[in-house]
Structure formats: structure tokens, C-alpha cells
Design a protein that fits this description.
single chain, about 240 residues, alpha/beta, Aminopeptidase, six-stranded mixed beta sheet, 6 strands, about 15% strand, globular, binds zinc ion
Length: about 240
């Protein structure tokens, strides 16, 4: 309940005034109030890793999977608050593998296959995968957005990178980039898909911020703000993007 109250407060303090101003200026851009709400895309929120697969671990022992879930839950709550359809692939600290998978490797493979299947079950889904970065050196920091090779992914990633810079960290000069071929999930879905590395667990300052509930809510609010624009058709695909 405390989390919900905090999310509500941040949402109204940071997001709602801007959203209301935008609505009053461009009321036709808000399908929630129009006659064709069924065409709205569904934000499929993937909290990366989970269960036995904790993902990256910070030098002080913070698990990436826990932070991913905390931010994902906040993004999902805010979607609900603003009437934007969303679904979470996992809502607990669990892996999504089949019961018959035994070894850690089998569980990881099964988990990723199941995540792809769950994303593809959403007829009108757009995938948002939430992760945390790590690096052998502690000097790197800053959120970065990666995009799948599917149509619509690059535009969303670039807009999300700009939103994160504007709302969360103006000094972050990172640019949106194509996802590595080694990232299974984003290379096996056919819908628009982005992955956000919210920050570096290996940077002590950023590690502290990422554990702060207000900072997590701020990240989620930025994500929601960009998503509302994208899902309402205010971010245009002005190039021939996407090869898949
Ligand atoms: Zn990860």
C-alpha cells in the first residue's frame, strides 16, 4: 500500500500536470476518450531475469532481478492509473521456465522461450524489457535504451532515451542503440520491442539511486510519459526502420 501511495504521489506531482496540459491542448490524441479504444497497443512489461537467475549482481550484493521487478511494478501501476493497457510477464521473483527443466541452463532457455511466447500472445503488444547494466569498471553510469530489429522499435527507443535524459538525468549523453544479436528475447519477437538498461549496478552512486524507491518511481514515470505519447500515435516512424 505504501508503494501505491508513493507511486500515486509521484504520478500526480510529476506526470499528471503535463498529461492534463497535453490533453487539454490536443484532446483528439487521447484514444481512451475516443470511440476506438480497442486499437490501443498493450505495453508488455518484462522484468528481466527472476528466481534462480538473479541477473547481474552489484559489488554489495544487490540483485538485478529485484530492481527490474521493482521498476516494472511501478510502470505497470502507472499504466493502470492512466488507463493504458499493460501486462507484466512476471509479478514475483520467479523464473518462467517449464516444470520439466532441470539444470540452470535448461531453466534459462525455457524461461526465455516462454517469455517470447507470452509476448506473442498479445495481439497488439509492444515489449518493454527492464534490466540493469554492469561493467568491470565502476566508472560507467547512465540509463541506455536498446531496440529490436522490428518496425517501430527504433523510434520508441530514441524517444525513450530522450525522455529518460530529460526527466531523470539531463547529463546522460547515451544514445539509443541496436540490441546485440545475443539477446534472445528482443531478437525473437515480431512486435516493436525495446530494452532499457536503467543504470549500472557497478557504479556505486548509481547503485544507491537504483535502490531508492523514489528514483525507481521517477524512472517508471519517465517510461510511462514516453509510452503514453507512443501509444497515442504522437511518436512517428519517420524512417524506413526495422528489418524483421
Ligand atoms: Zn539483465
Amino acid at each position: 500500500m505504501a508503494l501505491f501511495k508513493r507511486v500515486l504521489f509521484i504520478a500526480f506531482a510529476a506526470v499528471f500536470p503535463a498529461y492534463l496540459a497535453f490533453y487539454l491542448t490536443f484532446p483528439d490524441c487521447f484514444p481512451a476518450f475516443s470511440s476506438t479504444p480497442s486499437t490501443r497497443p498493450v505495453l508488455v512489461i518484462d522484468a528481466g531475469h527472476g528466481g534462480e537467475d538473479g541477473g547481474a549482481i552489484s559489488p554489495s550484493g544487490v540483485l538485478e532481478s529485484h530492481l527490474n521487478l521493482a521498476i516494472a511494478k511501478r510502470a505497470d501501476l502507472l499504466c493502470g492509473l492512466f488507463g493504458a493497457p499493460s501486462v507484466m510477464l512476471r509479478q514475483q521473483d520467479i523464473s518462467l521456465h517449464d516444470p520439466k527443466a532441470n539444470t540452470l541452463r535448461e531453466k534459462k532457455v525455457s524461461d526465455l522461450h516462454n517469455r517470447v511466447e507470452l509476448v506473442m500472445q498479445q495481439g497488439n503488444g509492444v515489449l518493454l524489457s527492464i534490466h540493469q547494466n554492469s561493467f568491470p569498471s565502476e566508472k560507467y553510469s547512465g540509463a541506455q535504451v536498446f531496440f529490436a530489429p522490428t518496425k517501430g522499435s527504433q523510434s520508441l527507443a530514441e524517444a525513450m532515451q530522450i525522455t529518460l535524459r530529460t526527466v531523470v538525468e539531463p547529463s546522460n549523453s547515451r544514445q539509443a542503440a541496436a540490441i546485440s544479436k545475443s539477446v534472445y528475447l528482443l531478437n525473437h519477437v515480431s512486435c516493436p520491442a525495446i530494452l532499457i538498461e536503467c543504470g549500472f549496478l557497478t557504479n556505486p552512486t548509481e547503485e544507491r539511486k537504483l535502490q531508492d524507491s523514489n528514483y525507481q518511481t521517477k524512472l517508471a514515470a519517465a517510461i510511462l510519459g514516453c509510452w503514453l505519447q507512443y501509444s497515442n500515435g504522437q511518436i512517428y516512424l519517420d524512417r524506413d526502420e526495422g528489418t524483421a
